[in-house]
Structures are given as C-alpha cells and as structure tokens.
Amino acid sequence: MRLFVALTPPPDIQRTVWEAFAPLRGRPFPVKWVPPEGLHLTLKFLGEVSADRRGEIVTALGSTVRGARSIPLAIAGAGVFPDLERPRVFWAGVEPDSGLELLADQVERSFAPLGFPTEGRPFRPHLTVGRAAREARPRDFPGLGEILDGLAVTAATVIDGVDLMESVLRPAGAVYQRAHRERLS
Fold first, then answer.
1. Domains along the chain?
2. How far does the chain reach from its first CA to its final CA, in angstroms?
3. Which residues pair with 7 in a beta bridge?
4. How far apart are CA 162 and CA 182, in angstroms?
5. Residues carrying an active site annotation
C-alpha cells in the first residue's frame, strides 16, 4: 500500500480551489491535474507500506491527534515548486497556522520511531493541484507567471479530521482513497 497522512477539505472547498485554477487548466500546459475530490494537504508521505503494518500506523495516528483541536484552513494564492523556471508541482497556498504547524510536527515525531524518516525540508502547507509531465521543459509554460499572478484562489474552512490515505497509481494518475480517519476535537 502507498500511504500518506493528510487533511482533506470538504468537497465545496475542493471544488472552489479546483475552479480557481481553470485559467491554467484551459492552457495546453503538459500538466496532470488532480481532480477536485483528490485535493488535500499532505502532512506526511509514508510511501510503500506492507498491509500488515496498517494497525501500528492507525494506532500511531490516533495517538498523534489525541486531544488535538480542529484546524482552521485558509487557502490563498497559487504557485509552483520549485520555481517558475522549472515548474513541477502546481499548488494552492495555505496560510500559516500554529495549530497546523504543531500537528504537522507531531505527525513527523510520531512516525519517525516507526521507521518513517523525518522530512528534511521545512513544512510548507499547500494543496497540490497538478504535476508537470516528466518530459516538460520551461518553454512549455509560456505566460505561466502572469497567469499565476492573476488567479484568485481564496477559500476557508475548518478541518475536523486527519486522514490516512492510500494512493492507488493508475495510468491516468493517482486515485486517493481514505483508509482511516481520526477525528479532531
């Protein structure tokens, strides 16, 4: 199983974010767009995990979120990683929030003893909206910066659960399925 820990916005917020990217999706850019129901904020990518570890992962997730409160999620702005010269990931930004940062840190610390290495880079909360094709070159994205600057991506919600997600790889792209959910108080 290919697993990750995520916060999943409700469908109306996913749709709002997805629709905000219509000006980009309408261009012939070599990008695989995430369907609206697949938009999420990854807290921790676990990778390939054998099915017999599911119990310990669910237990760790439960311990991690015990006592944690609901998380306000303010989505604003759009961009690409790593930069406009080499766009690989298209994202909607998430405003910094101390509760979100604390939760992400707790997830990292809880999963490290289970053999999942801690992330080597700072936590930058975002919703991945698309991924550039492997063969894409910078010249394949004319006017990208101007389009990104013109996107009006704003949405807000409160997240009341943390999801253990399974990523099923298919030729058309990954399909995400909730494997387990822990409620936040």
1. 2-183 (3.90.1140.10)
2. 29
3. 41
4. 5
5. 40, 126
